[in-house]
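for the record, two folds in this file. i put them one after another cuz i was lazy. first one right below, seq on top, C-alpha cells after. the second one comes after a little note so u can tell where it starts
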Amino acid sequence: MKTFSPADIIAYYDQTEVHYRLFWGLEKSMGLHYGIWDKDARTLVKAVKNTNRQLALLGNITADDVVLDAGCGVGGSAIFLAKMLGCRVIGITLSEKQVATATYFAQEHGVSDLVHFLPMDYTQTTFADASFSVVWAIESMETAADKSLFVQEANRVLKPGGRLLVGDVFKNHTFPIDEEPTMRAMLNGWAMSDALT
C-alpha cells in the first residue's frame, strides 16, 4: 500500500487546482468535493453547498462557535459558515497555494473579518488546547496516513463539549485496499492511502 507524505498531498492539490477550476466550477463551489446530491442539489456546485449546509445543521453551528476547518482546501466551507452563520473560522491546509486561493475567495465574499487561513498539518497543529468549539473536516481527513493522529489532535484542540464533524469517503466494510486494485487506484488518485470503515 502506498503511503502519501505531506509533500505528496501538497503536490496533488497544487497540481490539480487548475483541473478543479476548469471542470468542477471551483470559482462557484469553492470546494474540491463530490458533495451530497439530493432532489434539490442536482449540480456539483449545489451538491458542495448542500454538504456544507447539512454538516452545519448536523453540528448545530451558530454564530457563537469558533470552527477549525481541518483540510480547508480553497476555503469554501469556512466562507459558507461565516456568511451563513456569522461564526469565526480558521482554515488550515498543507498547501500554501490553497491558503492564497482561500484568502482571495474570503476577500471576494466579504468575510475576511471572520475567516483566516494558515498552512498547517491538521495532525499536529500549533493551536492551544481547547481552542475550538467545532472541528470540521469535509473530504479531507482520509488523506491522513494515520487517521488516529487527526482524531487525537481534534480531541486536543476541542473545548469540552465541542463537536467533531466529518464528511468523507468511507468503506462500507473492511477489506484490504491492496487486494482491490480498482479501489486502490481510485484512492491513490486522490492522494489517499486507505479509507476507514
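(here's the note) second protein begins now
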Amino acid sequence: MYIKTTNIKAIADKVKLHVNGKTALIFISEEMEIDVLELIKNLNERCVNFVGGIFPKVISNHVIYDKGLVIGTIAEAVDSFIVKDLNSGNYNIPTVRLNENTNYCAFTFVDGLSSNISDYLSELYKTFGSQLSYFGGGAGSISLQQKPCVFQLHWCQ
C-alpha cells in the first residue's frame, strides 16, 4: 500500500487498518517530510507491530516514488531483535528458538553504509544456517551521509 500524506495520525490509522493485526513492513522515502519518531510513537499507541527503514526511493505497483511510504505485511512474526554496534564489529546475534520441520524466513534491514555488513550476514548464517531463508536489504540515503535509517520493531502484547 502506498501512502503519500504527511499527516502522522492518518498514516498510523491507515497502517493499523491495512495490517489488521499482522506485522507492518514500513518503507519510507528519504524525501518524505515526516517525523519518524512521531510516527513510531503513533504506531505504538495503536499497538501496531512494525519494522521499517528509510530508503532513497520507494516502489509500489511498479511505480518509483521520491516521496511517500509503502506498507507491506508479515503474516506471522516469531521473534525479533536489533543488532547494534555493527560498525564496531562488537555485536551479538541472539539465538531464537525455532521449531523443527517449520519453514522460517529471516528478514533483515541494515544501514547500507555500515561497515561489517558481510561479517554480519556471515554471522547470521552461522547462527541460523539453512534452518531458514533470508531476505532483506540496505537502508539509507542517496546522499551517502550516514544517519539513523532503520526502525526498531515494537511488539504489542
